[in-house]
Specification:
It is a single chain. This protein is α/β, with parallel strands linked by helices. The protein folds into 2 domains: 4-66, DNA polymerase, domain 1, CATH 1.10.150.530; 71-355, Alpha-Beta Barrel (TIM Barrel), CATH 3.20.20. The chain is 35% helix and 18% strand. It has helices at residues 11-20, 28-41, 55-64, 136-150, 177-187, 208-218, 231-237, 246-254, 279-288, 314-326, 351-371, and strands at residues 4-5, 65-66, 71-77, 83-90, 93-102, 105-109, 113-114, 132-133, 164-167, 200-204, 221-225, 265-271, 294-300. The strands form 3 sheets. A 9-stranded mixed beta sheet has the order 3-4-5-6-9-10-11-12-13, covered by helices on one side. Strands 1-2 form a two-stranded parallel sheet. A two-stranded antiparallel sheet has the order 7-8. Strand 4 (83-90) and strand 5 form a beta hairpin. The longest helix is centred in the C-terminal third of the chain and has 21 residues, at 351-371. The radius of gyration is 22 Å and the shape is elongated.
Length: 374
């Protein structure tokens, strides 16, 4: 029997697990709080390090449970300090997470699925088929792997390097709602990983029926991968738009629980040359979001092998931003980070998938050569 991993279990689930392992019901709440503190505040990687617990209790826990993070397959560090980890949750289950350091803060871009079903035309992840949803433990584990690498424990300490989490990695978070919700509850727990909900952002391509639930049950900040204000363009860039068109998506945004000037929605807008970057596009964007407390992140397109688009010219991006700014919306142009290690927005895709694809191509070539008469 494989040991149960305690990482990712809700507090009540952890308590139930240790009761099943033989801990007395009366002692279970205290024991669960001690374990929770060691796991999420101090980042314990084993039970031996839990020095305020009795040795026999630690030994018993070690027999039944594990505190395993996802396996780090590779770590890459960009010239600009961005870090990318390829993580493995099991055979064929590989996903990426990225840490972006900035002055006074650090943001971790977390994946929710292995691959993706949305097939957004500008996104590298969209070219990788969906393998499966990530578990709460694999989602929480990405934060813990980053904290391990950054020496960022205890989670409640001052001067933490990892200060923000964005669910903007591989996959569509709202298609893995329950697992994302369970994981973010641990990330936002003041007695756990201790990141405030205002420092957690969930990004969606526009799964309209789940947006209100996300606001009510998760309560994080919301980002929308918009990328076009007209249905005829967004239908191509974000095929999910054919199911939930722009007007329905923006109605859901207007109804997002807790929306205010202090809690604005972020609209992500990738700048694609000759596709969505005209001044008419900028004016239409301003028109359709009018009345929504929002900011607009303009994202220079990050190229990847075989991408069908080019990045807009810088002069055009500046003109586009000027129109948005004049309408009263903050429109920062996101500085591309980690491009040299394929860690920038829209570039994530499991390295193992790329490797397997190249191996298959090599095999096909060798088979073709074998068919040629010598």
């Amino acid at each position: 029997m494989f040991p149960t991993n305690l990482i990712g279990l809700p507090f009540e689930g952890l308590k139930a697990a240790i009761v099943e392992a033989g801990v007395a019901e009366k002692a279970a709440p205290m024991r669960a709080r001690q374990l929770w503190n060691w796991i999420y505040v101090h980042g314990a990687r084993d039970f031996v390090s839990m020095t305020n617990l009795a040795k026999d209790f630690r030994a018993h826990m070690a027999e039944r449970f594990t505190l395993a993070r996802p396996q780090v397959v590779t770590e890459q560090i960009s010239n600009d300090g961005t870090r990318k980890w390829l993580l493995r949750g099991g055979p064929g289950v590989e996903f990426e997470t990225v840490f972006i350091p900035e002055p006074g803060r650090g943001t971790l871009c977390v994946s929710s699925q292995v691959g993706c079903t949305l097939n957004c035309r500008f996104c590298h992840t969209g070219t990788q088929r969906l393998v499966r949803n990530l578990t709460p433990g694999e989602i929480v584990g990405q934060v813990m792997v980053a904290r391990d690498a950054l020496g960022d424990w205890p989670s409640t300490g001052e001067n933490r390097r990892l200060t923000n989490v964005v669910m903007m990695g591989m996959g569509e978070p709202l298609y893995n709602f329950e697992n994302v919700k369970a994981a973010l509850a641990i990330v936002a727990d003041g007695d756990g990983l201790a990141l405030s909900k205002r420092r957690i952002t969930l990004s969606t391509a526009g799964v309209v029926p789940m947006i209100r639930r996300a606001g009510e049950e998760i309560g994080s900040a919301l980002a929308i991968s918009l990328h076009a204000a007209r249905d005829e363009v967004r239908d191509i860039l974000v095929p999910l738009n054919r199911k939930y068109p722009v007007v329905e998506l923006l109605q859901a945004c207007r109804a997002y629980p807790g929306l205010s000037n202090a809690r604005r929605i972020t609209f992500e807008y990738v700048m694609l040359k000759g596709v969505n970057d005209t001044l008419a596009d900028a004016r239409e964007l301003v028109r359709v979001i009018r009345g929504i407390p929002a900011k607009i992140n303009l994202i220079p397109f990050n190229p990847w092998p075989g991408a069908p688009y080019e990045c807009s010219d810088w002069e055009q991006i500046e003109k586009f931003a000027e129109i948005v700014n004049r309408a009263g919306y903050a429109s920062p142009v996101r500085t591309p980070r980690g491009r040299d290690i394929m860690a920038a927005c829209g570039q994530l895709k499991s390295e193992s998938v790329k490797l397997r694809a190249s191996e298959r191509l090599a095999q096909l070539r060798s088979q073709e050569l074998a068919r040629i008469p010598g």
